[in-house]
Amino acid sequence: MNLSGLTWAEGWMTTSAEAIALVVIVTGLLQVAFYIVQLVFAAFALSNRPPVPRGATLWRRYSDQAPPISLLAPAFNEELTVVESVRSLLALQYPDFEVLLINDGSKDGTLVRVIKEFGLERVERYVDDKVGHARIRGFYASPALPRLLVIDKENGGKADALNAGINACRTSLFCAMDADSILEPDALLRVVRPFIDEPNLTVAAGGTIRIANGCTIDSGRVTEVRLPRNFLALVQIMEYLRAFLMARLALGKMQVLTVISGAFGLFKRQRVVEVGGYSHGTVGEDMELVLKLHRHMRDLKQPYRIDFIAEPVCWTECPEDARVLGRQRSRWQRGALECFAKHKAMCFNPRYGRIGFIGFGQILLVDVIGPLVEILGYILVPLLYGLGLLALPWLLAFLSVTFTFGVFVSVATLILEEVQLRRFPRAREIAILALIAVIENFGYRQLSNLWRLQGWWQFLRKQQSWGTMTRKGFGGATAA
Prior knowledge:
52% of the residues lie in helices and 16% in strands. The chain is α/β, with parallel strands linked by helices.
């Protein structure tokens, strides 16, 4: 009797162990399948695009048709980099644009330094009240720099600052970006193309974000592309390649793009105003705005496009410290979960078409359940194998899904970058990144999932803080 009970218990435990392993492996295979589909679409999009024209060619082709653009650059405690950033923005190659620097209640000398450096004086400016934001304290401008306007407002966060810029801007298009990012000179000419080619359909477009760590930067321009020496920065270069060159390019091709980076995105002001601007109370305001636009246009039953253009590049500094990077990734995870929870009615809803099935399917698979299942697999699959409850084929299948396919996706993305865009001029740098594509799967990937798990915990606790983000600044000084 006891023996048969023991046999039954052992059989039940073995069956349960195999069920756990099956869930982990199937989830991993679904993710891999989605990544491979993205690779195919990305390769197709790049291979079928026309040759990338030079800046002078772009100017001749588009300058007469290019609509005016307002660049909205929120700044909070950017004293060390704000002057260089403003000079860089004012030097962009675009026929008609204005720079709206929004000082979001900085506690350092950001506002004073900008006023002094550019000789600004207090002016009056009409402000719309279409979207809500904290009180504006004043406007500063100079007749010598008609393209620059500084908005000084009470602190309300990045979304609140962007809303103030939306109300103050006078153009039909606005570009949302970070004050500490660097746009390539022809970035606006490149990203505006969908609005010229399909002016009645395009409501938003995003460009590529690249890591500036290690690059040579002179007068607000990246003059030489080089790899950083910091390991965490190298890993993030691979992550950004996968996120932009593979995932967003493919999702844009499929017209299911769910996020345009807050560091560089171009939007039709009218449509953004119709959805209430950027939402408060979320750290994923960039993703949430894109989802609101999808939802709004689908509810109106009007055709529209939200595109991703690979060529326009915005350079940004990434964290080189594990604690700072961990806070960033936890915040990103929390933002994705907040957006999914707020718009969960769209998930697999036929009313929202491909965005409901493919776009939200990816969020559910990669962002919602992905980190939970992967962490579960790291802990339980080897443990259950060690206890003799899983056969060797189950363990090998888990390792293949976790590591082999992970390396394959990263290396394939790197090959795609080298064949099509060639941003890394030296073969040595390609070899280093190929090595990183392998190494990152053994340690960093697991650590990244722990950070995402922390983001899950913060989401459940309804935590809203951003946390302290420290960076060196493009000039080498340290900023918080």
